[in-house]
Design goal:
The protein has helices at 2-8, 26-30, 45-57, 69-78, 80-92; strands spanning 16-19, 22-23, 43-44, 62-65. The chain is an alpha/beta fold and 93 residues long. It is globular.
Length: 93
């Protein structure tokens, strides 16, 4: 948020994007032999682009996409060590 404050007087808006898994197929091509964890409710790239553009026009501070991802952000804020251990286990299996 400090960058947003620094650029406010220059009429430059800073939009913070908090993005979960997006169904692009990128991870399946980039990880080689590692299989990425399944994400049944990943968001679409088109919807993310639309939400980002609308947030830009409205000069929003932040967007979270997919919106259900806020739940995991809250969990992480409450239990950061637990979240990191679970994420590590998921990638190692």
């Amino acid at each position: 948020y400090s960058l947003r404050g620094e650029l406010f007087s220059k009429n430059i808006n800073v939009l913070n994007l908090i993005v979960g898994r997006i169904n692009t197929g990128f991870s399946s091509r980039s990880l080689g032999s590692l299989k990425p964890p399944e994400t049944p409710f990943g968001g679409s790239a088109e919807k993310l682009a639309e939400k980002t553009y609308k947030a830009y026009l409205k000069r929003k501070r932040e967007i979270v996409y997919p919106s259900w991802y806020r739940f995991f952000i809250s969990l992480y804020n409450l239990f950061p060590d637990l979240f990191l251990k679970q994420a590590t286990k998921k990638w190692q299996s």
